[in-house]
Each structure stands twice: as structure tokens, then as C-alpha cells.
Amino acid sequence: MDEAPIIFAVPVRDLPGRLVRTVRTCRSPQGQRVGIAFTRPELLVAAMGADQQWEELCESALRGMLRPLGIDRIQVDPLLVAPPLDPSSGDRAAPTVPPRDAGVAVGPAPAPAQARTKRTASATT
Description:
Layout: E1 7-14, E2 21-23, E3 25-27, E4 33-37, H1 41-48, E5 54-58, H2 59-66, E6 74-76
Parallel strand pairs: 4-6
Antiparallel strand pairs: 1-2, 1-5, 3-4
């Protein structure tokens, strides 16, 4: 007897200007793109917030949506998922810059600490 498929709560987003939803993807700490799924909607809300849209999908349907994107790994029940910074750019993260009137002085980044070495030149005559 076959077991019933596990149904996941999968975060989705609307594509701007279309009547289509797409699954959200993220990156692992190592930088690999991964699909994300939750075993319970409450876990999705805890990790992504109550405003995150989601759909119920079985694993094979989710894998079928991720395969054309070259994604073969699904992270189940991640504890924290960073929100997209610019919803119009999809999964790309937009650079963040504090507003100019925020009263925060923004200057050049400090130079990284470098090992102090003494260079000497020897001349042979």
C-alpha cells in the first residue's frame, strides 16, 4: 500500500503584471540555491512572517517546479528566511542604503586590517 504524499506549505510570490505565482527560493549558507518548504503553516509564519503567501504542494510537485531552475535541494523547516529586499527584482537582493535624511553619517568603509610588514630593498653594486 502506497503512503500518502507529504503536503508542504510552500512560500510563493506573485509575479508583477501577471496572474501567476512562483515558488520562493533562497540560498544556503554556502551560496547554493535551494527550494524551501514547511511541514506546517505555523512554521512558515514563524520563519517568514504572517504576510508571506503560501500554497500547499506535495514534494514531487515542488521538485517539478524547481527542476527547470536547476535546483535539486529542498530545505525543509528553515528557522529563519531573509525577506527579499526588492520585491520587483524577484530573488535578487537589492543593496541597502540608509536614507540620506536618517541622520546617520555614511562614510567610506574602513580599510581592512593588513599585516604590517617591513619591506627592504637591497642594492648590489
